Amino acid sequence: MHVLSKAGTICRLFAVGAFVRDSLIAGNWKMNGTRSSAAALARGLAAAVSGSVRCDVVICPPLVFLQEVAECLAGSDVALGAQNVDHRTEGAVTGEVTAGMVKEFGCSYVLVGHSERRSLFHESDEVVAEKALAVLASEMTPIVCVGETLAQRQAGVTSRVIGDQVRAVMAAMTPVAFAGCIIAYEPIWAIGTGETATPEMAQAVHSDIRCMIAEQDAETAQGIRILYGGSVKADNASGLLAQSDIDGALVGGASLKQDEFVAICEAAGV
Ligand code: PGA
User: Fold this and answer.
1) Residues with catalytic annotation?
2) 72-91 confidence digits (pLDDT tens)
3) Is the separation of the CB atoms in 227 and 3 below 8 Å?
4) What are the two backbone dihedrals, phi and then psi, of residue 248, each rounded to the nearest 5 degrees?
5) Which CATH architecture has domain 25-88+96-268?
6) 241 Cβ closer than 6 Å to some ligand 1 atom
7) Which atom of ligand 1 is nearest to the CA of 251?
8) pLDDT, tens digit, 9 for 90 and up, residues 101-138
């Protein structure tokens, strides 16, 4: 088993344990669609997923479509999420929204620290941690995204980069609060490129992340959900989701196609 962390012994115990974590499939629509296409997709997913899929499902539309999408999802098994919030609670921050604001629209999840936010908007590990705290304070679940660049992978520093990103969030909050987070491992070189980590590559990093968490809190490490993201599609989802430390997927491009997204949800529910 691939273990880079000094908590290797604990991790080997997990591998033979029978701890069950519910799968979560999250759709990240990014900056796509129109008001009417968002409503049509949400309506279609609500009908297709409800009652038939045995995993948790959330979709994260652009903020301006939250109201519309919330109405389409009402009474369905599909939860609503936001792609980003500011870490402050109010004030002179032109163009941003608070966690409390998206909560009012019915969001129960918020993506935090997506690599596009980290690179395009210069979000540091510390800001990402503050955003996770703000989301928790509004009684929603942060999906904290971490991942390495291609250059970092090739330089052999993946474990250190991911470790810094995860530990920054852990350091900012109590163990109980951290247990309320979800981690999404998204190798940056796999996002929107059609390049996916093999199930074995992804499993190795997921296992590593669980080990890092176990160094501080073994119980949280067992219970926390770690999603994989980066060019997840219907035809590669089963292999990824079959890995013992992969508890779901964060899906970008494929979440914009109803049949493709439903097929990924079905792969998680088996
Ligand atoms: P992708 O995006 O599935 O299009 O690679 C994933 C993400 O950025 O969350």
Assistant:
1) 114, 186
2) 999 999 999 999 999 999 99
3) no
4) 150, -170
5) Alpha-Beta Barrel (3.20)
6) no
7) 3
8) 999 999 999 999 999 999 999 999 999 999 999 999 99
